[in-house]
Amino acid sequence: MGGVIGIEGRKDAAGLVHVGLLTLQHRGQESCGIAVKEKGKDVFNYFTVNGLVLGKFTGDVLEKLKGENAVGHVRYPTSGSKSGILDAQPFIFKSAHGNIAIALSGNIINTTEVRDKLAKEGAIFQHSSETELIVHLIAREKLPIENALKKALAKIEGGYAAVMLFKNKLIGFRDPRGLRPLVLGKLGKSFVLASESPAVEVLGGHYIRDVKPGELIVVENGKLKSTFYAKPAARQNCIFETVYISRPDTLIRGMSVAQARMAMGAKLALQMKGIKADIVMPVPDSGFFAALGFSKASGIPFEMGFVRNHYMGRSFLRTTQHMREIVAKLKLFPISDIIKGKDIILVDDSIVRGTQSKKIINTLREYGARKIHFAVTSPEIIAPCFYGVNTPSKKELIAATHTHDEIVKEIGVDSLTFITIDNAAEACGGNEGAKGFCSACFTGKYPTKISKSTLEAR
Amino acid sequence: MGGVIGIEGRKDAAGLVHVGLLTLQHRGQESCGIAVKEKGKDVFNYFTVNGLVLGKFTGDVLEKLKGENAVGHVRYPTSGSKSGILDAQPFIFKSAHGNIAIALSGNIINTTEVRDKLAKEGAIFQHSSETELIVHLIAREKLPIENALKKALAKIEGGYAAVMLFKNKLIGFRDPRGLRPLVLGKLGKSFVLASESPAVEVLGGHYIRDVKPGELIVVENGKLKSTFYAKPAARQNCIFETVYISRPDTLIRGMSVAQARMAMGAKLALQMKGIKADIVMPVPDSGFFAALGFSKASGIPFEMGFVRNHYMGRSFLRTTQHMREIVAKLKLFPISDIIKGKDIILVDDSIVRGTQSKKIINTLREYGARKIHFAVTSPEIIAPCFYGVNTPSKKELIAATHTHDEIVKEIGVDSLTFITIDNAAEACGGNEGAKGFCSACFTGKYPTKISKSTLEAR
Amino acid sequence: MGGVIGIEGRKDAAGLVHVGLLTLQHRGQESCGIAVKEKGKDVFNYFTVNGLVLGKFTGDVLEKLKGENAVGHVRYPTSGSKSGILDAQPFIFKSAHGNIAIALSGNIINTTEVRDKLAKEGAIFQHSSETELIVHLIAREKLPIENALKKALAKIEGGYAAVMLFKNKLIGFRDPRGLRPLVLGKLGKSFVLASESPAVEVLGGHYIRDVKPGELIVVENGKLKSTFYAKPAARQNCIFETVYISRPDTLIRGMSVAQARMAMGAKLALQMKGIKADIVMPVPDSGFFAALGFSKASGIPFEMGFVRNHYMGRSFLRTTQHMREIVAKLKLFPISDIIKGKDIILVDDSIVRGTQSKKIINTLREYGARKIHFAVTSPEIIAPCFYGVNTPSKKELIAATHTHDEIVKEIGVDSLTFITIDNAAEACGGNEGAKGFCSACFTGKYPTKISKSTLEAR
Amino acid sequence: MGGVIGIEGRKDAAGLVHVGLLTLQHRGQESCGIAVKEKGKDVFNYFTVNGLVLGKFTGDVLEKLKGENAVGHVRYPTSGSKSGILDAQPFIFKSAHGNIAIALSGNIINTTEVRDKLAKEGAIFQHSSETELIVHLIAREKLPIENALKKALAKIEGGYAAVMLFKNKLIGFRDPRGLRPLVLGKLGKSFVLASESPAVEVLGGHYIRDVKPGELIVVENGKLKSTFYAKPAARQNCIFETVYISRPDTLIRGMSVAQARMAMGAKLALQMKGIKADIVMPVPDSGFFAALGFSKASGIPFEMGFVRNHYMGRSFLRTTQHMREIVAKLKLFPISDIIKGKDIILVDDSIVRGTQSKKIINTLREYGARKIHFAVTSPEIIAPCFYGVNTPSKKELIAATHTHDEIVKEIGVDSLTFITIDNAAEACGGNEGAKGFCSACFTGKYPTKISKSTLEAR
Question: Are C305 and C338 in contact (CB under 8 A)?
Fold first, then answer.
């Protein structure tokens, strides 16, 4: 995933991008960064750092990030396994065009082919990230920047959204299938581009519309120019953005993610009509809205049987077996008098490897749950994603390697229901209806060519 | 508040106390610390640090915290305004008895009197915290440690719970009114003392019982001795532990806090019987369980109209007015299509100054809420607490300075309902019924003498 | 050792003390701290930190250290083996007298007796340092502060110098024998107290005089009052202050330490009259001035055969034997074409364990030195110091356990000459002549009583 | 300047390079880094960091730096004004040849031309350093790496020395004029390349010879291959390496720098034959060895009138004018009783802007010096350096803008003597005699073409 934000023509550009990144933090915790450009100066002020946004951009740092145009990034390591501070975006490049700052979320799938071709022509590479490729491709075109960028983008395939600074321009673009999200918003007279709408709203701005698949947006001196660098292919929005990546308050297809998830819960309630239970409860926070929707549609009371511990992190001692077991339990704490003796419909957003679900279900059993019916708001995941969602390889996906009955047995539930692909699409369709979703991870049918080597690498 | 935990006779004592402190983090974020004692050595290994528990007790640190008996503390600054690292507990003292490590949560109300008397006798003080007083009082008694401690505790008044290490003993005690909580649990053959039950359960242990008001517990070599240092006064449990301090999964009077809060919501639903609304929604996370209870009792659908941003903190730039406004909004994000055009019953746990409530209600109005009926699960707070809850002075308490109608107007709601004292007590009573709660903050009638100077200081 | 500085009546008091501490850094690298008092406020602003002064007192920190009176400290761990941040001075105490900040360098020898007595009376202790004892003793006296302090100091024995803040006073005192140094200086209208004179001069101030043994100085509102809390005992200045502790530019007895060391070198040249050599060279930096004095007195050319590496520290990898050998060499690098084939007079300030000297002499041999005559500007050290110099126990002192010939053989020199006690005293006597030095470490005759237990602890 | 070191075929390669960097620290304090390659793996393990070497390469870091071949770098910012962590070397690149790690000290003077040409061909740049250019030039050649490197180096001009890792090779090269130093050494069976000889000796290895101007050295599996990529131009060693850059124990032309500096002092003594004085003293540490040589040649006694404060740094408060004056004095402390009433010959290595000299001379006057004759071991500096020595622009050079008499007046001395170019060359000539030095900074005659734009930029 990863998240991006850019703003044009604000004196407090870095401060605003900083706040925007805080609202996009869930899209990437590996590293973060901001690059800013002052009008009339041809250098960027920038700061990148490993880890969370909070606490890194101190007053001292923000004071140095002077300039009216700014882009920011939060990184989630999708490709490029060995990552370090050198992979923290935005990246800054000098080229014959001039200086460029770029931040990209998502994934490019023909990286190897493009990189090999460039290397043969004498290019050198310093990042494990593929974002560098785009700048190489731009630099090789002697056209004006926008045309150079269009030619460059025509050579890459994938699911991505990016923001760029060049001279006095803020530039944004989204992949031709719309796999990764990018929205356009406005704050006063300034345009804002961001991965999710709350990053605009938190600033006091408002959402205008989604950037369209294959659209290239250039903002300069408060004026916006929209062109397309690719014929819009059949739209292929990533349904996982709604299922679990995005914030509940993010608007996708004109509807909040919270509403879409409640609708998925309601669809599951229909699918599971015959099943009786005392309570519906979510795996927090991922299954929350779906469980609420299920409860309303079914009439089965909604309960919160787990407390999620938000102070937890990954950085502590697991020297003994006892300690390892403790740590596994730290994030979700059961409330015994809610669970004990109940027939439960447990709602979560997905089953990937199945290990996490198994642990949670074990804990419920320990605390006295009677029957457990597991309702899942994504269909069976049977194939890896190459467009920026960090699913593991096929052989690790439980639904790719086990039958339905085997999964039921493995994770230890009384019944298991996955939402159907159609129901998921209907629930998430919003103002554009049930069409135009990528379903590669449920079907193994990818919307782009995937090279054999890429496929086999998973 | 603050939180404490102690364990006796485990080789991994520091590691266990560390995990326990993570589950008590909500009771104090100012500083934290662990002190450990190795059998047969008369020094403590200890580490105290400002800020959150997470990330501070690295492998290197825990490795040095060798020993079988350990106590830990999370600090919330109730008294002693200017605090620094010197105030981080546990404190370590040398005395004629030997070395003592102590950690105390809560508040002692006759600090000034005791300190003045001790100072006149030549005592010197290094901490702003009152915990030091107890050790001074112990050190002045030539009796065996337990008797010395009893005599010391007889001289102080307040609401507190503490754990101590002395020679091979783990010692715990709770104030004679039971104002602050302390529970006894067991992990294998080892006894555990902690402010809340989940700190025992997370370790794989189980809750045995509450430490009784005025009880002094001494554990040595796996054996527990219980005596009383004060005649149990009329029990005066702090109802705010249930209303908002404790975790939802904590057991108080044999019932989970989550259940008690749902019961309070149900009581409020009865109090507000005539009021019509489209949805019930909580201020997250504080009003969550009460809103759920309200919804069930009233039949009005439960909705989650706010997203709470858990990545937020306090440490960032507010240089401009615009930035200050943004920051105010960062923690709670409204979901517009849930709120818009609705008549809402909004549920929260308390109104203290009223400013926070006012902001939230304003936001709801901005996002299109029609009517807002505010339901609050604590009665009107009209008097400060001197027993460890950090309420402000009387003149800052909105319910102490405004009539009901003035509050309604000030915070901008259509109606406002506080739970009655009796309903709150009934809902929170658990296996001991509606009696035995301190209601000082609702009535101004304090269970102990409060010196004039202390009263006036507020 | 350790070092102290105090200043009264300057708006930039903390900044000045900070710079003063930088010039006293050689007296202690363990921790450092500054405490400041604002007129009319009865609290101290203070900051203590482990490690070197440089880089710790940032603009942010110094800005908070508001006030006109300030004291500072650099700590060298003489007693109190397990030290932590809690032992970083200045210490801050509350007592019946009021608030006190105190910083002390040196050592108190009857710590155990005083502490035991105080503990029996009910005192409690939080620091491993003995500085706390003085405050306990003050607090027990109901007299005005100065009288209380005098009575307190009458109860302790040792070699020390201290600065204190109390109300609007800056207080300083020096042990009755003058074992540890303290000077009085003036900066504009403000008095300054410091362990060494350059700490005054660097501020643009000037040295007035040494604080006298047993003198108590109180400065308030620019006025100085001097009294004595002890009959001046026979003066017993520590000759090691001149031999190696103090800076070369420090004035002791009206003479720079550099001049005294050159005079010691000249005395050694006389003692070694018959010995022939090509060059005189120092062990840098400790033997530098003595070697220069030796060269002038003897006519043998001075050379610098070693480069001292000032970027080195202690914090690096010694995993292999090869690495350990490398690290041993890192601090002193020989210059081969200066050493090769030469008969050398090597000058250093002292031989303690002998291991360091042995390494250096080995290196000289490796690089082709022919003969090595070792000249040492302190007499044989045969007894530990209890007054603040960190010499090891008797059994580790090579001169206490080996004959002259055995030392010559052990460290591998052709001849070895220690300065005589009389020559050392004459060279260091300055404007007070050869009398009044403590020679305990050379003779084992201590100027104070030393309890059997203290003696045996070494 | 900057410094480099590389080693081939040692299991503890990173640890050794780390120690080597400590001995090269004086060549660059801006940033440092180490890159290591494990045999049979085609990735580098590397770590770069801002600031000093000491304390950065902890056990944890070194443990990750596995591999048998390693290169290291300390950076001094000669070009590329705005530098950040991205400019810390070694740089790591991917290219069609494979992965390359490179570290370069010195300066390339046709950077702009080469960069513009590459940019026109589509290259992009990420560092302000010119080291990146070499890798671009290599990557564009389809020849084997050594040939590609030779073709690349033929296109650049400047004074530099570099080390590289590629596959299992350690590669080193030095500019065709030998402006910047690089030596070849051996440690057991392993070859070492380093900027100065002590970096080899500290490891227990020994100096073999200087790398020759225009020489390309490739070491693989313990075997060394030497070729030349440029006809050796007329040798042009930078005399400033001897005058002030290098360590005193570094061997240049077979002689220690200490000896060469003493010889320069002796030459100056001859030049100043008629001048009478009581003492000769250096500006420490830069004038130390020359002052010693002057004393021996002239018979005027050597004295050390300044103490240099090694704990000082740049990072502290200068809020007031008084503070600014204090800080200026902090590094050098005068010893009054050495200076007072003396006629002094003061020796230093150079006068650049003259401001530093002026301050020192002022201080001597304040402390009572009578006459001051200033002897300088470099000729008048009248032109900037473009080969890696960080001299300022012409208009800031006092000797370029003032007559001799004006300088005497400006800095406030009684007489001023610069060493002659011939005397300097003779003193520094070592085993190769007085020829083959670059004297551009004394004459303005540069050994290479300097483009008009480069010249004008200064």
Answer: yes
Spatial separation of the C-alpha atoms in residues A451 and A457, rounded to whole Å:
10
Residue tagged 């997905």 (tokens): A350
Least confident of A195-209, D231-245, D269-283: D231-245
Question: What 3-state DSSP class applies to A101?
Answer: strand
List CB contacts (< 8 A) between B309 and chain A. Answer: 22-23
**Which residues of chain B make contact with C125, given a CB cutoff of 8 A?**
93-95
- The alpha carbon of residue D272 and the mean position of all alpha carbons in its chain are separated, in whole angstroms, by 29
Q: Which of A120, A121, A124 sits opposite D135 (nearest CB)?
A: A124
Angle at D272 between CA D266 and CA D277, to 5 degrees: 95
User: Which chains touch A (3+ CB pairs under 8 A)?
Assistant: B, D
What is the model's pTM?
Answer: 0.85
Given this model, what pLDDT does residue C328 score? Answer: 64
CB contact under 8 A, D93 and A125: yes
DSSP for D54-79, please give it: TTTS-HHHHHH---SEEEEEEE--SS
Candidate from D202, D311, D336 with C-beta closest to C54: D311
Report how far apart, in Å, the C-alpha atoms of C350 and of each of B270, B331, C361, C377, C443 are: 89, 65, 14, 6, 15
Q: Which two tokens stand for residue D174?
A: 């030095």
Question: Which residues, at least 6 apart from D94, have a Cβ–Cβ distance to it below 8 Å?
Answer: A115, A119, A124, A125, A126, D100
Cα distances (angstroms) measured from residue C126 to each of C25, C109, C123, C285, C355: 26, 19, 10, 38, 37
Q: What tens digit of pLDDT does each residue of B390-436 get?
A: 888 999 999 999 999 999 999 999 999 999 999 999 999 998 899 99
- Min CA distance, D295 vs chain A (Å)? 51
CATH of domain A3-233: 3.60.20.10
What is the ipTM, given to two decimal places? 0.90
Instruction: Report which DSSP code applies to C125.
Output: B
pLDDT at res. C80: 43
* Domain D255-457 class in CATH: alpha beta
Query: Cβ distance B241 to B252 under 8 Å?
Result: yes
Instruction: Please answer whether residues D324 and C15 qualify as being in contact, where contact means their C-beta atoms are separated by less than 8 angstroms.
Output: no
DSSP bridge pairs for C186: C191, C206
Q: What is the pLDDT of residues A18-52, one digit of tens each?
A: 999 999 999 998 899 999 999 988 889 999 888 88
CB contact under 8 A, B119 and C139: yes
Question: What confidence tens digit (pLDDT) does each residue in C54-99 have?
Answer: 878 877 788 889 999 999 999 987 544 444 667 889 999 999 999 9
Contact status, residue D125 vs residue D115, Cβ threshold 8 Å: yes
Pick C248's closest partner by Cβ from D289, D307, D323: D307
CB count in 10 Å sphere of residue B243:
25
Point out the least confidently predicted range of B16-30, C126-140, C309-323, D277-291.
C309-323
Strands (E), A61-157: 69-75, 91-95, 98-108
Residue extents of the structural domains in chain A = 3-233, 255-457
Mean pLDDT over the full length of chain C: 91
